[in-house]
Amino acid sequence: MKQALIIFGLLTLTMIAQARPQIDKPQLKLELCDLETDASDDTFTEIRTIDIDKTKTLSPFLLKLANEHLIAQGYVKTEQTLPEIKALFGEKGEESFNDLYIVFFISKKTGQKYIQVKTWPGDNPMGLIFEADSGKLVGHNSDDSISLVTLSGGDVSCYELSK
After folding, report:
1. Where are the domains of the chain?
2. H or E stretch at 102
3. CB atoms within 10 A of CB 80
4. How far is CA 93 from CA 47, 99, 104, in A?
5. What is the tens place of the pLDDT at every residue in 127-162?
6. DSSP three-state, residue 117
7. What band does 29 get if pLDDT is binned at 50, 70 and 90?
8. Distance CA 116, CA 91 (A)
9. CB 146 within 8 Å of CB 32
């Protein structure tokens, strides 16, 4: 009877482990979780910030990243030009109460450079976080809660990772 209970327990644990999605933590940019804590100043250095209202030009690469964020957040359905984006966030635009920034920052530990495109539709920012060199999406900022993109294209919250 004891053996049967042990075998049953092991089978149950195996089934539970297989049912939980496996997360490849090494590929996640775990340091980005510090963006939702006070440790971000110790982890990252902000290199520069582009305020869409004040910029006159934007490279095609940065325009692509900005559009990816705007489409993901539902501000627009199709890619926009810089003048169209400026009009959307400008004084008479639909999002005139909102701000759109492109923030460049670097990890003090790894030297990895990131770009976050973010808006402030309320009290806290919403944004997408990309690797600066490749433009690969690596994280989401949702109301100042960070989620990291997994290999399968899904995401996992930093809160879940900290459990």
Report:
1. 24-162
2. strand 100-107
3. 18
4. 29, 11, 26
5. 999 999 999 999 999 988 999 998 888 889 998 888
6. strand
7. confident
8. 23
9. yes
